[in-house]
Amino acid sequence: MKNRSLLLAFLFFSTLATQAQTPVKKRPISTKDIYRLQTISDPQVSPDGKWISYGLSTVDTTKDKRNSDIWMVSWDGKESVQLTSTPDGESRARFSPDGKYISFVSARQGATKGQIWLMDRRGGEAKKLTDLKTDLEDYVWSPDGKKIAMTLRDPDYADSAKTKVRKPFVLDRYHFKADVKGYIEKGSVHLYVFDVTTKKLDTLTTGLYDESSPVWSPDGSQLAFVSNRTEDPDRNQNTDIYVIDAKPGATPKQLTTWAGSDNNPVWSPDGKRIAYTRSTASGNFLMYDQPVLAVISRDGGEPALLSKTLDRPVRNPRWAKDGQTIGVLVQDDRQTYVGQYALADGKFMKVASGNRVFGDLETVSAGNWLTLMSEPHIPGELYAVENGTTRRLTHTHDAFLAPLELASVEGFTSKSKDGAQVSNVLYRPANTPANKKLPTIFYIHGGPVSQDEFSFDLTRQLLSAGGYAVVAVNYRGSNGRGLDYTKAIYADWGNKEVLDILGATDYLVDKGIADPDRLGIGGWSYGGILTNYTIATDTRFKAAASGAGSSLQLSMYGIDQYTNQYETELGAPWKNTDKWLKLSYPFLKADRIKTPTLFMAGEKDFNVPTAGSEQMFQALRSLGIPTQLIIYPGQFHGITVPSYQKDRVDRYLQWFDKYLKPKTL
Questions:
Q1: Could you report the per-residue pLDDT of 428-484, keeping only the tens digit for each?
Q2: How far apart, in whole angstroms, are the C-alpha atoms of residue 594 and residue 393?
Q3: N or C: which end of the chain has fewer CB within 10 A?
Q4: β-bridge pairing 177-178 and 182-183
Q5: How many C-beta neighbours within 10 Å does residue 380 have?
Q6: E-strand spans in 527-635?
Q7: What confidence score (pLDDT) does residue 285 get?
Q8: Alpha helices of 274-374 — where are they, by DSSP H?
């Protein structure tokens, strides 16, 4: 009997061992996985450097929306704790300066406005700290933990009627509409100081100007902030750094005088200097720009431009604890890496780089940083950067990735007809033979001033899982290749970008990767605009999907949020009509288009309004070209409802399958 028991035990554990060694069968990623993907955001370091707080967004399929909770992970990565779990959602967690409390913003208990809540890290329920009557834009603890600086939007009194019928919008501003915000009447965002004990709210600034990005000086006596205090802020993109004593009645002092934009102020640990980012260009020439790292005395004067010769965009400046170096994130040819500048001699060094993308940066201790980093096959996770080496802290996406078979990702360089060298990223379905020609989708990024990078890209992975090679083209106008490359398309839309897209197409066809008879193109925002430009230029694409795009550019004046840019870059339509008409060629030459095209837009988009998609849909419908128009109800420029996000990719695949996949008998 004993031997039999031993035999059964042996067989049992042998079976377990066999199961453990059997790899999980992988499957292609599908649009249903959109509901499984979580998102990490807003990492913050505790004062003692031992814990990291962050927001974790998950999809609530019942309510068809995302919900954010607050989590913590220890610096050694061994412990992970969920701090909140409510259907109301919590965000913007901040440690109190003594490290005993965590504050966060939530509209709990039926509140119509987000309030600051306070949670004791030692246990117990969170308590509501504020009772704000208007929108909280930002908040930051004072160094002694006794006060909180806030930026609050002026109340909208026109929307406070006793009935649900809103009073008419009364508009007289030059910049009178914006995506998400909608129509913009009078009202600004101002700076306040809240006393944590007495709950008294003191007003620091008033007037017609907006204030943003408040940061306390290390001694708690002053706040630095950003504001545009020109005569008519709507007519320019100028912003400057100001400081103000943290008490009512104080007068702001302007530190910077650059005619461009100065943003993202951060005090040095000794309180003597402020690091910030400054635009390269002055005046209104800021769409095609890249920020540089600047440092200025707290008393003002001429700033030191530390990254002036780097010719790459820098962002997210953070002082090291010793105040001797400043860490930054640098966008450089499909990468975003961590770099740092030494204050003593201005020398620059890369801290952590590679074919990956660092998305956030926070100071931990001497030589150590916290970052949010993504790779082509791993969505964003938190990492420690210790003496240039990355160490993973969170494993949020392990369960998401475990069953999935993802596309391979590689970079390539193509040459355009005029000789330009263009950097691109190629996605190929998993297990695809190297010599197999594939139906190919060129999915074009928006911006235009952004770049496709070596990071996890859900949309392109989903398209590739449908059996397609998927191509990301960093056309001229993209950043990461220097200021001249970005500025190359100024007042010349739909020219060099199209040359670059077609150059990448020729390269992949010549290499036997793309099937020339099964080419598709699509994109969102400027990617949608370039889709329209491309199909009006070249008929080789057999299917297209244009999202949130436009073509009759003359008709966009006054109905979107870019009037200031238009007048600077193109001139007023009544003064430079020929230029506007030239850039409107996809609509005015719509009879050249032979590509079946799917048009999409968000119903409430004020960035690129639905009219841009409606006009092109109507033109192709009139011309008898296969077309369809999809409008997502209640959505702005970005599609945020999870079921709509899934629907969009499903429709991409259905449309491209219809025209690019060979018919089976």
A1: 999 998 889 999 999 999 999 999 999 999 999 999 999 999 999 999 999 999 999
A2: 51
A3: C
A4: antiparallel
A5: 24
A6: 543-547, 597-602, 627-632
A7: 65
A8: none
Q: Express each pLDDT in 4-32 by its tens digit.
A: 444 444 444 444 444 455 667 899 999 99
Q: Dihedral through CA 144, CA 147, CA 148, CA 151, nearest 10?
A: -130
Q: Encoding tokens for residue 483? A: 């200021």
Q: Rounded CA gap, 267 and 298, in Å?
A: 9
- Among 421, 424, 420, 511, residue whose Cα is nearest residue 471: 424
DSSP class per residue in 57-98: EEEETTTTEEEEEEEEEETTS--EEE----TT--EEEEE-TT
DSSP 34-61: GGT--EEEEEEE-TTSSEEEEEEEEEET
Is beta strand 438-444 parallel, antiparallel or unpaired with respect to 514-524? parallel
Closest to 367 in 3D by CA, of 304, 325, 317, 412: 325
What is the Cα Rg of the chain in Å? 27
Q: Report the candidate in 403, 411, 356 with the shortest Cα–Cα distance to residue 378.
A: 356
Helix (H, G, I), strand (E, B) or coil at 655: helix
pLDDT along the chain (665 residues), means of 10: 45 47 82 97 96 97 95 96 92 96 92 93 88 95 97 82 81 90 90 97 94 97 97 92 96 96 97 97 80 96 96 97 95 97 94 96 91 97 95 97 97 98 97 92 96 98 98 97 96 97 98 97 98 98 98 96 93 96 97 98 97 98 98 97 98 98 66
Q: What is the pLDDT of residue 16?
A: 46
Whole-number Å distance between alpha carbons of 303 and 306: 9
The pLDDT value recorded for residue 185 is 86
Q: Whole-angstrom distance between the N-terminal and C-terminal Cα of the chain?
A: 63
> In the prediction, which pLDDT does 5 show?
47
Alpha carbons 483 and 332: distance in angstroms, whole number = 11
Instruction: Name every residue whose Cβ is closer than 8 Å to that of residue 290 and which is 6 or more positions away in sequence.
Output: 280, 311, 312, 313, 314, 479, 483, 486
- Say if residue 200 is exposed, middle or buried (CB neighbours under 10 Å; 0-12, 13-18, 19+): exposed
> Cα–Cα distance between 462 and 425 in angstroms, integer?
15
Amino acid at 555: S
Between the alpha carbon of residue 559 and those of residues 234, 610, 617, the distances in Å are 16, 10, 18
Domains and their CATH numbers in the chain: 39-131 (2.40.128), 405-660 (3.40.50.1820)
Name the token pair of 468: 């397609």
CB atoms within 10 A of CB 261: 24
Tell me if 250 sits within 8 A of 244, measured CB to CB.
yes
Residues 6+ positions from 501 with CB-CB distance below 8 Å: 442, 444, 473, 475, 521, 530, 534
Which ranges of 327-432 does DSSP label H, i.e. alpha helix? 398-401
The single residue listed with the structure tokens 């996000």 is 645
3 state SS of 125: coil
- Hey, what are 227's tokens? 């504001």
DSSP label of 165: -
Nearest partner of 317 among 300, 334, 330, judged by Cα: 330
Q: Give the whole-angstrom CA distance, residue 352 versus residue 390.
A: 7
Apex 330 CA angle, 327 and 335, nearest 5? 130
Answer whether 0.85 is exceeded by the pTM. yes
